[in-house]
Amino acid sequence: MKKFFNLILLIFISSCSSNEDNEVISDTLYFPPTNTNTWETKSISSLGWNQSQVQPLFDYLELKNTKGFIILHHGKIVMEEYFNGHTANDTWQWNSAGKTLTASIIGIAQQENLLNINTKVSQYLGTGWTSEPLLKENLITSRHLLTMTSGINDESELIITPNLTYLADAGTRWSYHNVFQKLMDVVATSSGQTFENYFNVKLKNKIGMDGFWNNGVIYKIYHSNTRSMARFGLLALNKGKWSNEQIINQTYFNESISTSQNINPSYGYLWWLNGKSNFMLPGSQTSFTGSIVPNAPAEMYAAMGAADQRIYVVPSKKLVIVRMGEASNPANPSFAVSGFDTELWEKINAVIN
Question: By its UniProt entry, which Pfam families does this protein fall under (predicted)?
Answer without folding.
Answer: Beta-lactamase (PF00144)
